[in-house]
Amino acid sequence: METFPGKVGLVQRVLPVYRAPVFEALGQACRDGLSVFAGEPRPVEMIKTAQHLEYAQLVQGKNRHLFSGPRYLCIQPGLRRWLAAWEPDVLIVEANPRYLSTPAAIRWMKARRRPVIGWGLGAPPLSGALADLRQNRRLALLNQFDTLITYSQKGAAEYADLGFPPNQIFIAANAVTPAPAHPLPERPVLPAGQPPRILFVGRLQERKNLANLLRACAARPPLEAQPELVIVGDGPDRERLQSLAAEIYPAAQFTGALYGEALEAQFRAADLFVLPGTGGLAIQQAMSYGLPVIAAEADGTQADLVRPGNGWQIAPNDLAALTAALDEALGDLARLRRMGAESYRIVAEEINLEQMVKVFVQALNRSLR
Are 297 and 230 within one domain? Predict the structure, then answer.
């Protein structure tokens, strides 16, 4: 595997547990070491954070969050002290203008003629009364980066549309797990009378639109046409969802959060994975177990994973579109099996943790040229 011959600093607002494997692998690819500076989330976010990295240094900061809602601001005290102590050859930061300490970190690097890489989802069009101000802040930040890393083709196109050089944009498809080490699971033809099983895995939050999934299942004809529905996860919306399920789809199963072999068993037992709202990190894991996917369009990262050959992308919060996709998916189980095999191929060959880290290393090496 290609490596980077230097020291790397990487700044995250928070370091979720699911992201730790990426940084562990990246740390192994940085010959002189990787140091990650990250703080704590807002309590309302309920994010489980990593507390230790084996192959990289993890420095815990103290985030200060200003305001509430999706347009909060964040200050990260201690960032420049960490830079001075670590002295990275290249710095990777999140390309988010709401993180108010980032410009000072970039200036510190630029004063020493060292490159800075921005890492972000993309730059979708802005709207609202402050759209022009927010756009100017976005452009001011982007123009300071030597290189950009984004999760998707869509994100790369958005950055290029803002004038960032396309040859300095790298696409590291979002991944949280390695290429599957296990073979494609075999799923036999379902016996007569056995309904297919739909699986959801993730945080139970309102933005996941699980109420629509319950309604779409309930809209199908009764008896054999109604699928089993297994909802894996926990979160602030669980009580509301269980009350709704008791009313309209009492057969739905809520397992709570599962890990390890218990979660693996759910992936192997399912026939279809559905993510009706935003998010999507479990999509790759579901695909590694040969599951076709129905996913709502969100930040663009799903577009590279979910294609016509292995699933359906639907408009977010569109109950009619979700119901139609379920009808099509469950109407031909033989086709569903073929689509599951294509899901497995995509994550085995194209989109996995190894490929994501490979792109990061390529971007690091390019930044020094």
Answer: yes
